[in-house]
Specification:
Elements: H1 18-31, H2 44-51, H3 55-67, E1 71-74, E2 78-81, E3 92-94, H4 107-118, H5 134-146, E4 156-159, H6 162-173, E5 179-183, H7 188-196, E6 200-204, E7 206-207, E8 210-211, H8 213-229, E9 236-240, H9 254-267, E10 270-274, H10 288-291, E11 296-301, H11 302-305, E12 313-316, H12 322-332, H13 338-350, H14 352-375, E13 388-392, H15 395-407, E14 410-412, E15 433-437, H16 443-460
Parallel strand pairs: 3-14, 5-6, 5-9, 9-10, 10-11
Antiparallel strand pairs: 1-2, 4-12, 7-8, 11-12, 13-15
Helix pairs in contact: 1-3, 2-3, 4-13, 5-13, 6-7, 6-12, 8-9, 14-16, 15-16
């Protein structure tokens, strides 16, 4: 006699087809541990009857979950949960900005088995072109198009993730002694990279959408004036994350994007656009690279949209800069792993990438809702859903929160790591705060950490409403 399934059938309360809603409901319960490894799922025909949906809909949802490695089917026995439960460490880490896990333990083996049947042995025996194999550049460009970025493969360089792409862009545009203009609060990785390269970093005042055009104009006055005086200095570039800004979660509307592009065009300044948090195409929030392809270096990566271990990034380069950028790529890394690129190609071709991407988006929405429910008005509202949230706090409170959270076993992003000039007091308290990365922890760990943060905010006397509007 077969054991009954412990799962209580439901459809997730999301917009989407019945198959997508069933996929989301099962994903949530598997990844949260509510459905443990080895648990039996209901028979497809019985589940279709109980939910009032078609048998083909159930079959499609089960197939989507099996492609991701969350389910396994045994002929004559049924369908079972195959995901591995998340590990719990000494700390709950809210400092590393990674997407929620959406890959089961069976997916890597299935992917490698598929590659073994179709991989080109010669591809593993020779060095690829510096920019990457054309077939993989075409595939990554196709993936970028799914996110709303029309990328010409001829202008696309394959890199070892987004951080490598940023290194190539900064080396190409700024060079030794150059200047990087950034938002007052920005991605810690670009600050570390700029300092490693010896660049002068200039922070620009922000509002709820990110960098303010009038403040950028003033900063460029100073930066370009210094460049004229220093004949041996390098170039100047502006670095931005216009969609789901890291760390403040702001997004620039179309008017702000047009204003920033027009200003840089008038000043003949290059922009470096970090677009790793774009999860879906949105015509109202176009990439800056689509507005000014002649002066925008566009950075994106699969590690944020699919899996952190898939270290394949892409740098779309303005044609006039391509040869210099290719030379910088060659100097910083001879080749990108063909095997990793083959995994990317396989996932895109067989639909796994689409399934993983949809699951990550839905889990990100669920985690954002959890953070909003626990932290309430202390959390800054964001137009877009991503893997981090922002707590606007005055500098002393931000620093105190980090120390107190660590004492409770919760790691948050150090406030000084996101400030463009951490050696000086924050000039604008409205641009100060703490980033919480909510994608990595297991769901129960995340809830525990957020509740601990909420308690600390009350103890520290933090304001009830966000400072940064």
């Amino acid at each position: 006699m077969r054991l009954q399934s412990p799962w209580h059938p439901r459809l997730a309360e999301i917009d989407g087809s019945p198959a997508e809603r069933l996929d989301a409901a099962l994903s949530q319960d598997i990844l949260s541990g509510a459905l443990p490894v080895g648990a039996r799922l209901p028979a497809q025909r019985d589940l279709a009857w109980r939910l009032g949906i078609g048998l083909g809909t159930v079959t499609k949802a089960y197939a989507m979950l099996e492609r991701r490695g969350l389910l396994r089917s045994e002929r004559g026995a049924g369908t079972f949960v195959a995901a591995t439960a998340a590990r719990h460490g000494d700390f709950i880490d809210l400092s590393r900005n990674v997407p929620p896990s959406a890959v089961g333990e069976r997916l890597p083996g299935r992917t490698l088995a598929a590659l073994a049947r179709r991989i080109d042995a010669e591809m593993l025996s020779t060095y690829p072109p510096v920019a990457g194999h054309p077939r993989f550049r075409n595939e990554l460009a196709r993936w970028f198009r799914r996110l709303g970025m029309e990328a010409d493969p001829a202008c696309l360089l394959l890199t070892g993730g987004a951080q490598h792409a940023l290194a190539v862009a900064l080396t190409t545009v700024c060079g030794p002694g150059g200047t990087l203009v950034v938002e007052a609060q920005t991605y810690p990785g670009v600050l570390a990279l700029a300092r490693h390269l010896g660049l002068r970093v200039v922070g620009v005042a922000m509002d709820g959408q990110g960098m303010r055009p009038e403040a950028l104009d003033e900063a460029l006055d100073d930066a370009l004036g210094r460049a004229l005086k220093d004949a041996g200095g390098g170039g100047t570039a502006v670095y931005l994350t216009p969609t789901m800004q890291n760390p403040t979660t702001g997004s620039m509307d179309r008017g702000r994007r047009d204003a920033i592009v027009a200003l840089c065009r008038a000043r003949d300044v290059v922009l470096i656009e970090d677009d790793v948090y774009r999860l879906v195409p949105e015509p109202d929030f176009p990439p800056l690279a689509s507005l000014a392809p002649e002066r925008v270096f566009y950075v994106n990566s699969l590690s944020k949209t699919l899996n952190p271990a898939l270290r394949i990034g892409g740098l779309v380069v303005p044609p006039a800069w391509f040869d210099r950028a290719e030379a910088a790529l060659h100097a910083s890394g001879l080749m990108i792993s063909p095997l990793g690129c083959a995994v990317m190609e396989q996932w895109v071709l067989d639909g796994t990438a689409e399934a993983i991407g949809a699951a990550i988006r839905e889990e990100a929405r669920r985690r954002r809702a959890l953070a909003s429910a626990i932290l309430g008005p202390a959390l800054r509202e964001a137009r877009h859903v991503g893997y981090h949230v922002w707590l606007p706090l005055a500098p002393p409170l931000a620093a105190a929160l980090e120390v107190a959270a660590r004492a409770l076993g919760v790691l948050v992003t150090p406030p000084e790591s996101t400030r463009a000039d951490a050696t000086q007091p924050a000039p604008d308290p409205a641009a100060s705060g703490v980033r919480l990365c909510i994608g990595g922890p297991a769901p129960d760990d995340l809830e525990a950490a957020l509740r601990a943060i909420a308690g600390l905010l009350g103890n520290l006397g933090a304001p009830a409403r966000p400072v940064l509007a």
